C-alpha cells in the first residue's frame, strides 16, 4: 500500500513539474542597442500586464505554485504560530503620536483582529478611547478592505488626519476627524501616500494642511510618479480645489525634475522648507517665507543642495541642525543659521566618531540626545549638553534605539530599545535621576520556547579584505557539523541599514533547528558613507559578492553546507540574491526573491527615479554597471540553478510585477536542474505594505515553508517527494 501511495505521489509531482516545463511563458524577443552593445530581452512582451496571454500565464503559474506549496505538510505553520503569538501578546501598538499637550494617538491591533484601529489617550495614564475602526470606511462595499497606514494629529490634538489604504495599494485616502465628538468630515482626500511620501503637515493655526498629491492613480502607469505636487488643503473645502504650492509645473523657474516628489518639512518659525525626494542619499531643498507661500508669491529659493551632503534636518527657532557627511564618513552633527546658512563650514557640535555612525538625534530642553550604531547592530545613546558629550548607560544592550521627544521647550525623551532576540521596550528617561522608567504601551510577553536562542555578531573577511558584519541567530545547542539548514537574508541598497529588531519569524526558524543569518552587505549604511558607496553603481558587485563570501565562510566554519543554504532578498535585495545565484548557482540550494528588483536595465528605463541609486542608462559607464548588476540578463542556458521561489505584487508601484514575472519566465526556460522555479503573484498585494496581519503572515509562511522544504527539514517534506 505504501508503495502504491509513493507511486501516485511521484506521478503527481512529475505531472506538475512537466506541466510547468511544457507551458513556457510566451516570448516575443526584443533587441536594444546601447553604445554598440546589443541587449536581447526574450520576454519584453511580459511587461504588458494587461495582455491576455501574460495574465493567463501569471495565473497558471500562481495556481501551480500554490498547488505545490499546499503539499508541504507545515505550509501554514508560520502563519498559525504568528497568529498564536499575536493572541498571546494580547495586542500590539504602532504609529504612536504624542502632541505637546500630552495627547496620545496610536494604532492598536488586538491579537484576534486582522487590522489595527485608531485609539486616543489624554496622557500616558489616561483612559483609552477608540476613535476609528477602518472597517467603517466605505463599509457599504463589502469588496473593500482598508488598513490605517498613517495618522497625523494637529498641533493641539483637536483634529486628526487618518490615511487609509486598500489591498496592498500605496495610494491612500485621507479623512479628517474632530477628536472630541468623533465627527468625520465628509470630504475625502485621494491620490496621496502620506505613509511613504511627505506625511501631512498641519498649518500653525490648524486651518488645513499640506500633503503631496500624485495626479496619476494607476500604479502600473509609466506616468505614476510624474508631476507630483505639494498642495494645501483647507479644512471643509472640496478636495479637488486644493492649491498647488510647490511642484515642477507650478515652479518652472526652479527647473525641478518632474519625477521627483516634493514634500514640505515641519517648521515652527517664519519659513517653510521643501525637499525633493529621490533615491539619492542627499536631497535638494528650497526655502520660502511663510507669508509669501500663503499669499501665493513664488519666492522659493535654493536652501541646500546635494553636494552639501546634508541629512536629518531639524529647525529650532533661527538655528538649523543637521547631520553632515561633507568630509566625513560616519556623520558629524552640526548647526548653522537659518537666515545665513553655511552648510560647508558650520558649527560642529558632535565630531565624527571612528567606528560609530551617528543615527537619530532629538533636541530637548536638557540638550541633544543622539544615537550611534556600530556595524549596524551595536547601538549607544548619548546626551550632548553644555558642550560635553555624555554616554548614557542603557537598560540593557540593544541593537537598535528609537528616540521620541516633544521638542526644545520640553525635557521629555522616550527611548525604545530592541534586538534580534529582545522584544522592543519603551522607556521615559529621567535625566536628573539617571533612570529609565518603563512606559511601554504594549505588554512585554515571555517566550519560553526561545530561551535557548542566542545571537552572535561577527565579521567575515571579504575577498578584498573588507570586514562584512554578519548576524547569526540560532539555538545554542546546535552542532557545527555542516548539517544545519541556514537562511541568509541580504539587502544592500539605498544606504539602508538592517538594524536589529525583534522578529518572531527569525526566532521560529532558529527554534526548528535552523540558523538565521543577516548579511550586512555593502550598499547599506551599516558602516557609514563608505559602506553605502561600496555597493553603489560601479561598485555594486561588492553587494552580491559579500553575500557569496559570507556563505562560503558559514560553510567552511561548519555551520552548514551547500545543500543546506537558502538566500532571501526582497525588493532591492533581489539584485543581491539574483546576482549571487546567477554568479554562483552551485553555492546555494534555494533562493527566495520577494517582490524583487531583477531587471534593472528596464527598471531604470521605466522608473528613472531609480537611476540615482543604480545608474543612468544614457551614461556609457553607468550602463555597463547596470548590465553587470541585472540578474535577468545573467541567466544563461544550460545552467543548473537552485530551487527558486519568486513573488510579485500586482499593485506594486515600486517594483512593477513584470520584473519578477520576467525573471521567473527566463529562469524556467534556461534552468537544467530538477529544482523547481516557482512564481507566485499576489493579486491583493503590492510591495508588502498596507496588508492585513493575516495576509502578511501568510506570505511569510510560504517563504519559510519553501525554504525548509528545499533544505530537507523532515517536517516540511511532502510524502514520497525528495525536495523536487
Strand order of the largest sheet: 32-33-35-34-36-37-38-39
Cα radius of gyration in angstroms: 26 Å
Distance between the termini: 23 Å
Percentage of β-strand residues = 25-35%
Number of extended strands = 39
Provide mean pLDDT, rounded: 92
Structural class label: alpha+beta
**Main pleated sheet:** 8 strands, mixed
Shape: globular
Tally of helical segments:
13
Quaternary status of these chains? single chain
Low-confidence stretches are 1-21
How helix-rich are the residues, as a percent range? Answer: 10-25%
Explain the overall architecture.
Mean pLDDT is 92; it is low at 1-21. The chain has an eight-stranded mixed beta sheet, sandwiched between helices. Strands 7, 8, 9, 10 and 11 form a five-stranded antiparallel beta sheet that branches. 21% of the residues lie in helices and 31% in strands. It has 13 helices and 39 strands. 45% of the residues are buried. Helix 3 (77-89) packs across helix 13 and helix 7 crosses helix 8 (573-583). The chain has 724 residues and is α+β, with helices and mostly antiparallel strands.
Blueprint of the fold:
Elements: H1 2-22, E1 30-34, E2 37-41, H2 52-69, H3 77-89, E3 91-98, E4 103-110, E5 117-122, E6 129-132, E7 146-153, E8 159-166, E9 172-178, E10 183-184, E11 189-192, E12 201-202, E13 208-213, E14 229-234, E15 243-247, E16 261-264, E17 271-277, E18 285-289, H4 290-294, E19 301-302, E20 310-316, E21 319-324, E22 332-337, E23 347-350, E24 357-364, E25 367-374, E26 378-385, E27 388-392, E28 400-405, E29 413-418, E30 425-430, E31 435-438, E32 453-461, E33 467-475, E34 486-490, H5 504-511, E35 515-519, H6 529-533, H7 541-556, E36 565-570, H8 573-583, E37 590-594, H9 600-606, H10 611-614, H11 620-629, E38 643-649, H12 658-670, E39 677-682, H13 693-710
Parallel strand pairs: 34-35, 34-36, 36-37, 37-38, 38-39
Antiparallel strand pairs: 1-2, 3-4, 4-5, 5-6, 7-8, 8-9, 9-10, 9-11, 12-13, 13-14, 14-15, 16-17, 17-18, 18-19, 20-21, 21-22, 22-23, 24-25, 25-26, 26-27, 28-29, 29-30, 30-31, 32-33, 33-35
